[in-house]
Structure to design on (71 residues):
């Protein structure tokens, strides 16, 4: 399940971790971007798709959980 607060906290932490950087701002921006990208990917991987209706098979409606891998 996607969690806005969990993602928000990871984003805040990415910025907080870099607040004291004084000498290499470009590296700091790269680290923040990496942490944000990873936090977003991690959050997307938490998504669960539950299919409940719409398709039919010869013996009735198709239901269940779609198992997937995000690369």
């Amino acid at each position: 399940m996607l969690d806005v607060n969990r993602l928000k906290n990871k984003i805040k932490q990415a910025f907080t971790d870099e607040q004291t950087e004084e000498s290499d701002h470009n590296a700091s921006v790269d680290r923040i971007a990496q942490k944000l990208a990873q936090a977003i990917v991690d959050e997307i991987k938490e998504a669960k798709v539950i299919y409940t209706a719409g398709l039919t098979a010869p013996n009735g409606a198709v239901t269940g959980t779609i198992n997937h891998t995000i690369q």
Residues 25-45 form the longest helix (21 residues). Helices lie at 4-17, 25-45.
